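subagent[fold] <- orchestrator: predict structure for attached chain, return tokens only, no commentary.
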Amino acid sequence: MGALSKKAINEARKKVANIINCKPSEIVFTSGGTEATNLAILGYAEMHPEKKEIITTKIEHHATLHTCSYLEKKGYVIHMLDVDHEGFINIKDLIEKMNGHTLMVSVIWGNNEIGTIQDLNMISSICKKNNVALHVDAVQMIGNMKIDLSQLDIDLMTVSAHKFYGPKGIGFLYKKDTFQIENLIHGGMQESGHRPGTENVAGIIGLAEALEQSSKNLDTYKSHLSNLSKKLYEVLRKKIPSIRLNGPQLGETRLPGILSLSFNDIKSFDLAFALDQEHIYVSTGSACNATDIKPSHVLCAIKQTDIKQTGTIRVSFGIQNKLEDIEYIAEKIEEIYLSHRS
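subagent[fold] -> orchestrator:
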């Protein structure tokens, strides 16, 4: 690697570490959240073959669920925690599932479909008391909350840049210095040997710059997204009283820029397609699952009925959206909804 490129990567690593309050050596750059999650779970499993049980939840991102399914085929026991109607895990259930064979707990901090924010401090304290490793999917959280790893006792954390307005195709795994994982791929000594291969220099620099801007403007961004979500939900409730908000009520236990909304008597695809024609872009689940017409596993986990599963859209806001857009969006949703019911 050229000296300038190496210097740029090192500076970016230091910048990221400073923002989330960890050591630069604890940052492993990856191609995104999915790779980071695979490296965390599979890498730690390879390091500790004597432990064959993993605890996770029914509302995880597919990166976690499919990685756990892969390990299940290899003989691992995967304990899937139930969640309540708002998406929160049962802490008692977590404690009961732990034993001497538990390899790790892997939990999504802020859910990408219904916005539920888990009590990470409680989960972490339980893991530490039981000497169980903790992997946290923080992809949705890092742009929505100040993260101070000196105050969070976690071992592994997954991050993806595009969730805080950075470039796509780049992310990182936070790995506590005292924590050992095996490589998934082999080659050179890039990323301290944890992720061999030529680094995405431009992506790494872009990630660090985007994280810095997001961190500086965190309160402003969060307030803006919260106001957008609140406004749309309030307007839609007046126009369509039967509408249902999935996940927690708007507030501190919910991600500020995500609304999962269910409608009676209209299918998700029909509503999403009609909105698309109006240049209003929503999804029928997570963005990673938008082409799948099956009911969302997250909505199934919070025990939504079939009719509401097929009439659910996810509205995700960004900092580029404006309050004046809300009335137009609400009017179009009402117009499409009423036309399909008539």
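orchestrator: received. Logging for downstream: Residues 218-239 form the longest helix (22 residues). The chain has two domains: 3-216, 218-341.
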